[in-house]
Specification:
It is a single chain. By secondary structure, this protein is an alpha/beta fold. Among the domains are: about 180 residues, ANL, N-terminal domain (Rossmann fold, 3-Layer(aba) Sandwich); about 100 residues, 2-Layer Sandwich (GMP Synthetase, Chain A, domain 3), CATH 3.30.300. About 30% of the residues lie in helices and about 25% in strands. The radius of gyration is 23 Å and the shape is globular. About 50% of the residues are buried. It holds the Pfam family AMP-binding_C. Belongs to the ATP-dependent AMP-binding enzyme family. This is Acyl-CoA synthetase.
């Protein structure tokens, strides 16, 4: 049966023997992927939703694609999620079944759910079902909320298509590109951008299973053209470059190095660029919005900026009264509109209503300034990174970048703490390059004041052996104070 809607993955029917997916030594062509995902899709029937146990394996990609083909919303589950949070996600999303690789041991929390093993059967080609309406939910992805249990963001098919097509435009992404990454598959970055992105273009994705610099070097040397990673991965790349000429050569030949999910420190940008001649580009998105901005392939990749709004995305920066900021240097909240947005928080009409303005702009909670050329520079989260000190509104991100520019600082985080005089004082959390000789408070304060402004210098410095981070490399600032 034909469909009035264009296919989300047209190459499943036209791609034939071209490679589509590879996980380690296991790979599928487009024809094989269509057969495997198509036969599983036929078995999903009229399921309300399906949970997918999202391990970094070939089966996860096949299971998610099968759900998309069947028009059944997929709920990716992080295998590292704790029992209480997992129980909340399952109760909230109420999936009809859980899809998992054969032999994968599932936690007791999922014991009540019917299980469907993702059997990669490429033997019999099946007719793919008609393409669902673009408004149909594709995913329910749970956000790592800073307060309360995670909320399920319902992402429609149109949002997936809009974001991936906008990135095609921004990054000149084609069927000739081969993407390598080792990102988790329960998150927008690794799953939607990192697996569905290549499949939307008719290209190939090679997943490392577990990120290693050796794996990156091997795949880039063997024809991969693009690398996706998070800052912790690029930091490991930067650390390895001095002693690894093969890695340096492989990165030098890449068409595109992309970092996301958190800000990439300036010194890692510079170390990679100096060694390889290639600059890492950054982009900005959220679970609720997929991608909002990106440094374009033909643009200027400057450390600290996440590029310009993607095609189809409206973006504004507003002050505390909700009015667009008049001064380019004024810190304000990013708000966005466009086809890339989620439709609702599942079962949370109150939270959905609170997330949008009356005229349909989504309140991201991210604070930013706009550079003279229109590029967006994010300075932190409204809840944790906007510091009001001595009458100034200060973004933690710009202070962190200034601190990371000091040779004695390996990692840095900046927060605010109550202060009777200033309202809030700026606190720097530092992992020193040399733990035996950490830079002193005055030295760091003077360094920041000279680079930025005196009112942005840290008033307190605390030294750590490492910063607490989540799976995507984001610093967990609430854990610092805890």
């Amino acid at each position: 049966m034909s469909s009035p809607h264009p296919a989300l993955f047209p190459d499943l029917t036209t791609g034939g023997d071209r490679p589509a997916l590879r996980f380690g030594d296991r790979g599928l062509t487009y024809a094989e992927l269509a057969a495997a995902a198509g036969s599983l899709a036929a078995s999903l029937g009229s399921a309300r939703r399906v949970a997918v146990w999202a391990t970094p394996r070939l089966e996860t990609a096949v299971g998610v694609l099968a759900a998309l083909l069947a028009g059944v919303p997929a709920v990716p589950l992080n295998p590292k999620t704790g029992a209480r949070e997992l129980a909340h996600i399952v109760a909230d999303s109420a999936p009809s079944a859980v899809l998992a690789a054969p032999g994968e041991q599932l936690p007791d929390t999922l014991g009540e759910l019917p299980r469907t093993d993702i059997v990669v059967d490429t033997a019999a080609a099946v007719a793919l079902p008609p393409e669902p309406d673009p408004a149909t939910p594709a995913f329910v992805v749970y956000t790592s909320g800073t307060t309360g249990p995670p909320k399920g963001a319902v992402l429609p098919r149109r949002a997936v298509a809009a974001t991936l097509d906008a990135l095609e435009d921004a990054w000149q992404w084609t069927a000739d590109d081969v993407l390598v990454h080792g990102l988790p598959l329960f998150h927008v970055h690794g799953l939607i951008l990192g697996v569905l992105g290549p499949l939307r273009r008719g290209g190939e994705v090679r997943h490392l299973g577990r990120f290693t610099t050796e794996g990156v070097a091997r795949e880039l040397s063997a024809g991969a053209t693009m690398l996706f990673g998070v800052p912790t991965m690029y930091h490991r790349v930067a650390e390895a470059l001095d002693g690894d000429p093969e890695l340096t050569k492989a990165l030098s030949g890449a068409r595109l190095l992309v970092s996301g999910s958190a800000a990439l420190p300036v010194h890692d940008h510079e170390r990679i660029a100096t060694a390889t001649g290639r600059r890492v580009i950054e982009r900005y998105g959220m679970t609720e919005t997929l991608m909002n901005t990106a440094v374009r392939a033909d643009g200027e990749p400057r450390a600290g900026t996440v590029g310009v709004p993607l095609r189809g995305v409206e973006l504004r920066i507003v002050d505390e009264a909700g009015a667009p900021t008049a001064d380019r240097d004024e810190v304000g909240e990013i708000q966005v509109r466009g086809p890339n947005l989620f439709t609702e928080y599942l079962n949370r009409p109150d939270a959905t209503a609170a997330a949008f303005t009356a005229d349909g702009w989504f309140r991201t909670g991210d604070m930013a300034v706009r550079d003279a050329d229109g590029a967006i520079r994010i300075v932190g989260r409204k809840a944790t990174d906007l510091i009001k000190s001595g009458g100034y509104k200060i973004g933690a991100g710009e202070i962190e970048n200034a601190l990371l520019d000091h040779p004695g600082v390996r990692e840095a985080a900046v927060t605010g703490e109550p202060d009777d005089d200033l309202g809030e004082r700026i606190v720097a959390w530092i992992v020193p390059t040399d733990p035996q000789q950490p830079p002193g408070h005055e030295e760091l304060a003077d360094h920041v004041a000279a680079q930025l402004a005196p009112h942005k210098r840290p008033r307190t410095v605390r030294y750590l052996t490492e910063l607490p981070r989540n799976d995507m490399g984001k610093i967990m600032k609430r854990a610092l104070h805890a």
